[in-house]
Amino acid sequence: MLTLLKKSRGIGAWLLLYSNAFATHPLVTDDTTTQGARQFQLEVNSEFSNDQQSMNGVTTKESTSSFATALTVGISENLDITLAVPWQWNSRQDNDLTTMSVNGVNDITFGLKWRFLTTEDGITLALKPVVSLPTGDSGRGFGRGKLSEGVTAIATHQGRLGALHCNLGYTHSPNINEESSNNIWHASFASELNLSNNLRSVFDFGIDRTETRVSTTHPSYSLGGFIYSVSDNLDLDLGLKNGHTETTILAGITTRF
């Protein structure tokens, strides 16, 4: 159980600080788009991941499912505020025997996005500070149990065929044990390709600094998916993300009003 709880804390921190709740789902990499003054966006996203490892004759399967709702409000043309509330399910099986199954609310997150530069060449820059509140039960594997804060620098280039996005982020989170690091770096790159007026394909690649001091393996991911615009104010999305040992299916719906 301790293995899963430590892993879940790490997953919870990243899902909230650099998660799809803030980016255009199913992407992890955020873009510089803001909603505009007195405009709103509501996202309902889900993720289903599985991780399987074998050691000393024991095959361990860990499954995590999350359901997140994020509300974004446009304060001005270049400034947004976002509130994200996630619910998470964790389960573990050792040699097909269920040893744990729990669910609960994870850490709630507040974020700001400030787009401070727009050029005539289609390049925009933004900053996104984020604060994660310890609202989850860390003893059961939901959240880190401590306040975390971070900031991400975002660059976007918008062109006729689609868009390119780049993120560089930093998170400070108090140590949850002697082996954990409290300084986490993140870098990622994403692209969007317009396949038609209503359909976009998306690709995303990223790497994070490991949260464990004794490890030299930094977790990375690759992601591919599609976004279908039912109308100007309603999007449906589907994606598949691959990590070092786990695979995640992502699905969501976004509406603007």
Overview of the structural elements:
- With 257 residues, the chain is mainly beta.
- It has a single domain (2-53, 62-256), classed as monomeric porin ompg (Porin, Beta Barrel), CATH 2.40.160.
- Helices cover 6% and strands 61% of the residues.
- The protein has one helix and 13 strands; from the N terminus they run αβββββββββββββ.
- The chain has one helix at residues 2-17, and strands at 40-55, 58-76, 79-94, 97-105, 108-118, 123-133, 148-158, 162-172, 183-194, 199-208, 220-231, 234-242, 246-256.
- It has a twelve-stranded antiparallel β-barrel with strand order 1-2-3-5-6-7-8-9-10-11-12-13.
- A hairpin with a 3-residue loop joins strand 12 (234-242) and strand 13.
- The longest helix has 16 residues, at 2-17.
- The radius of gyration is 18 Å and the shape is globular.
Mean pLDDT: 87
Envelope shape: globular
- Bin the strand percentage: over 45%
The CATH superfamily bears the name monomeric porin ompg
Q: Describe the strand arrangement of the main beta sheet, using strand numbers.
A: 1-2-3-5-6-7-8-9-10-11-12-13
* CATH architectural group: Beta Barrel
Rg, nearest Å: 18 Å
Keywords:
Porin, single chain, disordered N terminus, mainly beta, 257 residues, 1 helix, 61% strand, twelve-stranded antiparallel β-barrel
Please give a quick description of this structure.
This protein is mainly beta and 257 residues long. Helix content is 6%, strand content 61%.
Architecture blueprint of SSEs:
Layout: H1 2-17, E1 40-55, E2 58-76, E3 79-94, E4 97-105, E5 108-118, E6 123-133, E7 148-158, E8 162-172, E9 183-194, E10 199-208, E11 220-231, E12 234-242, E13 246-256
Antiparallel strand pairs: 1-2, 1-13, 2-3, 3-4, 3-5, 5-6, 6-7, 7-8, 8-9, 9-10, 10-11, 11-12, 12-13
